[in-house]
Design a protein that fits this description.
The protein is an alpha+beta fold. It has six domains: about 30-240, Orthogonal Bundle (Hypothetical protein af1432), CATH 1.10.3210.10; about 245-400, Beta Polymerase, domain 2 (2-Layer Sandwich); about 405-525, Beta-grasp domain (Ubiquitin-like (UB roll), Roll), CATH 3.10.20.30; about 530-605, no CATH class; about 640-705, no CATH class; about 710-790, ACT domain (Alpha-Beta Plaits, 2-Layer Sandwich). It has 33 helices and 22 strands. Strands 1, 2, 3, 4, 5 and 6 form a six-stranded mixed beta sheet that branches. Strands 14-18-16-17-15 form a five-stranded mixed beta sheet. Strands 20-21-19-22 form a four-stranded antiparallel beta sheet, with helices on one face. The chain is extended and about 105 Å long.
Length: about 800
């Protein structure tokens, strides 16, 4: 499980020359060719019992003669009954497929219960066998693994993509409790990929894309590199056949000289450990002091060569591009001694050293990576590992019990995925989040206490905050990186030490979604924003209903208590509303109009209730009762424009927004218009936008006392064309605390008595400030008039 190669090959002793007898065990052309399908031969082997005998022999060889193979034979008998007369697309008896999957599981060293489960992994889906019956016959352990692997084929979904996403959710839930579920699923997918050529072209492409996007990265995350590489290689063959064939041809170019080059590289590296070479500290390698050392050569797969070509832009140019060397020592200390010895006698290539011993990868991989130049200037890639690291590199999650920490990390990661799926409603969104997490390159950062955190490349302090705790993320206001204040959009770099600054008043904003890189952070932010939007809609809907009811002389509390609110909501189509909050939310979101809910509760029968009458009633507060008699209705209780309503607070979003068309200033006469998805938009009463939508039931508003909000206004001043007048006007703006953002001045002639038009874009905070500013501007000698421009063309003079 090295960075670039699949770690199997030739062991070499330090005292002898490098041999290259088994160098092709890492990759060979035959491994990319797929399985040779022989339906007739498969039937003969099944009838003779050769398949099951071979599987039992494999279990005993890996687990010892004391292995309980009776469970395996019993599972085989049940699988044979479930798949009787079933045939695969290749023409083989279907039973051959679970037998091959079980053989892969046995070779990985898993227990007999897992081997039995792999024999039956398709039985529940493809027959009438139930999970309950399976548990009764073979035990709950086997049934639980089979249940985790079983697809949701019998449950209808809206689309194939949703079906796959929901099936993946179920597998993750089972994997979080038993990692063997994923191992069986990966072995199942591997055998299906090996026989993919018998599928239609469209299905081959779809399955290959799913494998490349989900299953191969999952295998990599769990350290099952041999499975990952073969899955990727077969997928590349069908997704990008020309690229795959190009890599095969590149390998064939060096096939004749490759064994000799591997032999030479192994000999060069192994000769430094014969005890006659001294390291930088004068020490030479001896078994007594540093333990035994082994050397392996590893051939790369075509998919790995393709990935290298994509990152470098170059095809393989030398035989050495096709393999790497592994040096396996007794422990981690010996790894660093070996590194010093190699660097003392072979020149290292700058910038190519990586220490994954001190900073392991998320899948548990540990090694020292370096690139060396031999006497002829040829580059040799070397990975240095201990025996324990080598086991993890080859078997990942399935390494022996002494590497239990890796299993814990894998379960923790799977637990995170399960946590996401509980928060994400859209299955497609969940799949995209998992894919992003699987494919991301990592950066390693530290907490102030020295704890190591791993994040995708491009992560920000927001990701770090949510990795610590959801509450920390929700109240993040800034960060210190390496002791310096940085904004939350800062991109984390390798080795950064990150400290999060929190504020109880801080809350996530929609733009955070573009700043974070982890699915955990995005999921938490989206959940918060969704809840805040619901709260905003409820608050807004409650206010709108209360105002409509006040116009009818009614109280919101009264209609809730007597049940009229829910009754009226059902009359207008909100049949699913079971509480007042749900009615508020529908009104605030624009699904229902407050006026319709109120009229459903208190219907009017007057035929004269048309647009003009409604506007008249709204303005004067007068109307008619059911008999046509003129009555005075109580005025609507105005909604108060407060800072909290404009900006929101914590988990409550804003319910009001100030219109950009007329830029109302606190203190000016205003009216509100409901806008779906935004809430109530505040407009000046004379705003053309408000007048154009007068039929939309304007909402009475009033400003909170002493509220001041910085607002942009446009002021047009008509003056004489006199020197120094612009400076005097600027002083007036400054004296009133109005900041000029932009000024545009032009004259309508060259003489002093000619008119000059000056347009100022400034900011003010209250209507009183604006009024006093305009009065003082008009008082300047030479100023003929000063007025606020609400929209283009509203002033008396041509717009500049």
């Amino acid at each position: 499980m090295t960075a670039d190669a699949a770690p199997v090959s030739v062991a070499v002793t330090p005292s002898g020359p490098a041999a290259a007898a088994d160098v092709h065990r890492g990759w060979s052309p035959q491994r990319s060719a797929g399985l040779v399908v022989d339906p007739e031969g498969a039937r003969n082997m099944l009838e003779s019992g050769a398949y099951i005998d071979d599987l039992v022999a494999c279990v005993r060889r890996i687990q010892g003669d004391g292995a309980d193979v009776s469970l395996v034979r019993e599972a085989y008998a049940l699988a044979e009954a479930c798949h009787r007369n079933q045939v695969r697309k290749s023409g083989e008896p279907y039973l051959v497929h679970p037998l091959r999957v079980a053989k892969t599981i046995a070779e990985l060293g898993l227990d007999t219960a897992t081997v039995a489960a792999s024999l039956l992994h398709d039985s529940v889906e493809d027959s009438d066998l139930s999970i309950y019956e399976l548990g009764e016959r073979l035990g709950k352990e086997v049934a639980a693994v089979v249940d985790g692997v079983t697809k949701l084929g019998k449950v209808p979904y809206l689309s194939r993509k949703e079906h796959q996403a929901e099936s993946f959710r179920k597998m993750l839930l089972a994997m979080s409790q038993d990692i063997r579920v994923l191992v069986v699923k990966l072995a199942d997918r591997l055998d299906n990929m090996r026989t993919l050529e018998h599928m239609p072209a469209a299905k081959r492409e779809r399955i290959s894309r799913e494998t490349m996007d989900i299953y191969a990265p999952l295998a990599h995350r769990l350290g099952l590199e041999e499975i990952r590489l073969e899955l990727e290689d077969i997928s590349l063959r069908y997704l990008q056949p020309s690229a795959w064939q190009t890599m095969r041809q590149a390998v064939a170019t060096f096939e004749d000289v490759l064994p000799a080059r591997i032999d030479r590289a192994l000999g060069t590296v192994s000769s430094l450990f014969d005890g006659r070479r001294e390291g930088p500290d004068g020490l030479s390698w001896t078994i007594d002091r540093f333990g035994p050392v082994e050397f392996f050569a590893t051939r790369r797969w075509p998919c790995q060569l393709h990935r290298m070509m994509q990152s470098t832009g170059h095809r393989p140019e030398r035989p050495e591009d096709l393999f790497s060397i592994q040096v396996v020592t007794s422990d981690a200390v010996a790894c660093y001694v070996a590194l010093g010895l190699l660097h003392a006698h072979m020149k290292p290539v700058p910038g190519r050293f990586r220490d994954y011993v001190a900073l392991p990868r998320p899948n548990g991989y540990r090694a020292l990576h370096t690139v060396l130049l031999d006497d002829e200037g040829t580059r040799i890639e070397v990975q240095i590992l201990s025996v324990e690291m080598d086991r993890v590199a080859r078997f990942g999650i399935l390494a022996d019990a002494s590497t239990g920490g890796l299993a814990e990390r894998a379960r923790a990661w799977l637990g995170t995925l399960v946590d996401w799926q509980e928060s994400v409603r859209d299955p497609n969104e969940f799949i995209e989040a998992v894919k992003a997490d699987l494919f991301a390159d990592e950066v390693y950062v530290f907490s102030p206490k020295g704890d190591i955190y791993t994040f995708p490349k491009g992560a920000t302090p927001i990701d770090f905050a949510f990795a610590i705790h959801t509450d920390v993320g929700l109240h993040s206001s800034g960060a210190r990186v390496n002791g310096h204040l940085v904004p939350l959009r800062y991109r984390l770099r390798q080795g950064d030490t990150v400290e999060i600054i929190t504020d109880p008043a801080a809350a996530p904003r929609p733009e955070w979604l573009k700043m974070c890189a982890t699915a955990r952070a995005r999921t938490r932010i989206k959940a918060f924003l969704r809840q805040r939007e619901r709260t905003r809609c409820r608050n807004l809907g409650r206010q709108l209903l209360a105002q409509e009811l006040s116009a009818e002389g009614r109280s919101l509390d009264d209609v809730i208590e007597d049940g009229r609110l829910l009754e009226g909501a059902r009359k207008i189509g909100l049949a699913g509303a079971k509480s007042a909050d749900e009615v508020y939310e529908a009104v605030g979101a624009g699904t229902a109009a407050a006026v319709d809910v109120v009229r459903a509760m208190f219907p009017r029968q007057s035929a004269a209730d048309n647009l003009l009458v409604r506007v008249f009633r709204r303005v004067t507060g007068r109307g008619t009762d059911r008999l046509g008699t003129s009555v005075v209705r109580p005025p609507d209780k105005p909604l108060v424009i407060t800072r909290a309503a404009l900006e929101g607070r914590g988990s409550e979003g804003p319910t009001l927004s100030l219109g950009a068309c007329c830029a109302p200033v606190p203190g000016e006469p205003v009216v509100g218009l409901f806008q779906q998805g935004t809430g109530i938009v505040v407009h000046l009463r004379e705003c053309p936008e408000a007048l154009d939508h007068i039929d939309k039931r304007p909402i009475r508003l009033e400003w909170a006392p002493d509220l001041d909000v910085e607002r942009a206004v446009t002021i047009e001043v008509r003056t004489m064309n006199r020197v120094g007048l612009l400076a005097e006007m600027s002083r007036v703006f400054s004296r009133h605390g109005a900041n000029i953002k932009q000024a545009n001045c032009r004259t309508l002639g060259d003489k002093e008595e000619d008119t000059a038009i000056n347009t100022f874009h400034a900011t003010v905070r209250t209507a009183a400030q604006l009024r006093d500013l305009l009065l003082d501007l008009k008082a300047i000698p030479g100023v003929e008039d000063a007025q606020r421009i609400v929209h283009v063309g509203s002033g008396r003079y041509p717009q500049p």
